[in-house]
Amino acid sequence: MTDESALEASRDFIRDIVAADLATGKHKGVVTRFPPEPNGYLHLGHAKSICLNFGIAEEFGGRCHLRFDDTNPAKEEQEYIDAIQRDVRWLGFDWGEHLHFASDYFEQLYGWAQDLIRAGKAYVDDQTQDEIRLTRGTLTEAGQNSPFRNRPVEENLDLFARMRAGEFPNGARVLRAKIDMGSGNINLRDPVLYRILNAHHPRTGNTWHIYPSYDFAHGQSDAIEHITHSICTLEFEDHRPLYDWFIENLPVPSRPRQYEFARLNVTHTLLSKRVLTELVRGGHVSGWDDPRMPTLAGLQRRGVPAAALRDFVKRIGVAKANSTVDIGMFEFSIREALNSSAPRRMAVLRPIKVVIENYPEGQIEQLEAVNHPDDAAQGTRTIPFGREIYIERDDFMEDPPKKFFRLAPGREVRLRYAFFITCREVIKDASGEIVELRCTYDPETRGGNAPDGRKVKATIHWVSATEGIPAEVRIYNHLFATPQPDAANFAAQINPESIEVLSGAVVEPALASDNFDGAVQFERQGYFVRDKDSTPGKLVFNRTVGLRDTWAKVSAAG
Ligand code: ATP
Ligand code: MG
């Protein structure tokens, strides 16, 4: 995708609607909200919704609320409430004083439910959940009226009050709206407004024994907060008539409107809180912040900068048709963000020892290296060099094919920021495996250039064997090897090679004292971030993303 289409994507049909509503004076200002249910951690899909809601508020000088849709205490926890706030802030957004909870409106919602009962528009139904489901009808067949549908108002009010007081067990009764069991829209066939749930709520404790449904809570919460544009994903399109029915039939203080956009799907990824919860509970990953998880916490631990997420969301745009985005596009945004900012360092992931025979034993010298090739402001650092170093095993071949230009017997290469070395001898163990290379260096090439102008065909990275720091490097691959994993059967599709642990890596000493949180580029290898599992004796790094830019190639070819 070019920069131009990324710019175009910053205008979409929802922003057009908002702009028009402001231009015509329908609204004086725009108020949006991001309404997570605190039953899990936020994921990449939520990032799209957050950037859209908070982004619109920023761009049009309005405000965006963070509202927890905490209507199901059976699944919701304080841990999630805290994590969601942390993650929205990390993404770069701020709700100011507008932190709200649907549970703040429970009393008002209860009062409005009583209003519906008094108006003959709601009734208490004693049928079981199964009976209600079986009499709901199908897409082609009307539903059947409940035998309790014409209960007198007084009886309804009394039973509803006793439901609230905790007189009945879970599921014994529900409150339903009395709309139309023959409606072509199943959502209008006497939807459930309240169910009995004797559970402890993270905020209201044991005050309530009944909880409102999503449909009954959501639109009314929007109205209470004077939300102008209530933006949600397409699966709620069929709920909009019900959303509007409540707004029309209740004395709400404002008239919000719901708009739907396509949810984000990404290849090799499942963005479903149910699946993510099961991945955690089933021990398939180390936790919500496992770097393979598409959660914001996992991506952060993986080293993905928030700017990359915002850039990605901008590039994919907002549309009305569901589609699946290639994960390569997300990786492209990550590389874009990191390439310009991440400091460069050297690390050897799969080391082989090199002894430089003509370098004085016991001597260490400090060589200067730039921190970023295009950003002089990042300054320089020194790297210790000595008689014993490590290079990448892959950078040597005993019997190289034609196009292999790196180290080989008798061949000279440049060590980055250091010297030219020439391989003189290959040392093997009893089994024939190469264990060490004996080389010589040319002291005249300090800094990486020969005074006689001779050239080498390759520059390789290295780390001092005596001064380098041992490290474990964790390389991640897609959690699901198949591009379109099936949520119903996710466990069987987990990629057994989604993590590869390189426990014998060695990194340059600067990485032990670096005091920034973000990712660095290990030269020639990719972007890596220090993991919280690091100890003073052993650093642990996560690979954020490799250097190869397949998306740019794919899109250039297409
Ligand atoms: P799940 O279906 O995984 O349980 P959810 O949509 O129920 O997720 P919520 O906490 O209700 O999770 O979501 C909060 C907001 O984020 C909603 O407005 C929802 O539409 C939006 N959202 C959730 N998933 C996506 C997605 N994949 N792409 C875009 N928006 C999403
Ligand atoms: Mg939801």
Tell me the fraction of residues in β-strands, as a range: 15-25%
Number of strand segments: 27
Low-confidence stretches: 1-9
CATH architecture of the largest domain: 3-Layer(aba) Sandwich
Q: How far apart are the first and last residues' alpha carbons, in Å?
A: 10 Å
- What's the alpha carbon Rg, rounded to whole Å? 31 Å
Provide the structure class: alpha/beta
Tell me about the largest β-sheet: 7 strands, mixed
Number of helices, where a helix is a run of at least 4 consecutive DSSP H or I residues: 15
Q: Tell me the helix content.
A: 25-40%
What is the overall silhouette? elongated
Order of strands side by side in the largest beta sheet?
12-25-26-27-23-24-13
Average of the residue pLDDT scores: 95
User: What is the CATH H-level superfamily of the largest domain?
Assistant: HUPs
- At CATH level 3, the topology of the largest domain is Rossmann fold
Give every kind of bound small molecule, once each.
adenosine-5'-triphosphate, magnesium ion
Number of domains: 2
Query: Given this structure, which CATH class of the largest domain is correct?
Result: Alpha Beta
